[in-house]
Design a protein that fits this description.
mainly beta, 8 strands, Ig-like_dom, IgV_Light_Chain
C-alpha cells in the first residue's frame, strides 16, 4: 500500500518561515511536487523540484524532487500565502520522472 503523509495544519505570522513536509511510503524511489488551493480558487501548481508554477514567487523553495521526506519552504510568509498545500508523490518505476 502506498501512503503519502503530511502533518496537521500549520500556521505562521507574516514574515516567518514555514517548512511543510511530506513523506511517502514504503521507502523507494519517489518524485514529489506541491500544489495549493487558496480559498475560493482553483488548485494551483506550486513547485516541482526547483521549478515554480506561474505566479509563484521565489519565496517558495523546495528540496530536491527526489528527497523523502520532501519539503516546501515559504520564506517571509505573507497573508496571501494562506492556502491548503498538498504534496503529490509519484513512484519511479521506470527511471523517468512523471510528465
Amino acid at each position: 500500500q502506498r501512503v503519502v503523509t503530511q502533518p496537521p495544519s500549520q500556521s505562521a505570522s507574516p514574515g516567518q518561515t514555514v517548512k511543510l513536509s511530506c513523506t511517502a511510503s514504503p521507502a523507494g524511489n519517489w518524485y514529489f511536487g506541491w500544489v495549493r488551493q487558496q480559498p475560493g480558487q482553483r488548485p494551483q501548481f506550486v513547485l516541482y523540484g526547483s521549478n515554480r508554477g506561474e505566479g509563484i514567487p521565489d519565496r517558495f523553495s523546495g528540496s530536491s524532487n527526489r528527497g523523502n521526506p520532501n519539503y516546501l519552504t515559504i520564506t517571509n510568509a505573507q497573508a496571501e500565502d494562506e492556502a491548503e498545500y498538498y504534496c503529490a508523490a509519484w513512484e519511479d518505476n521506470n527511471g523517468k520522472p512523471p510528465s
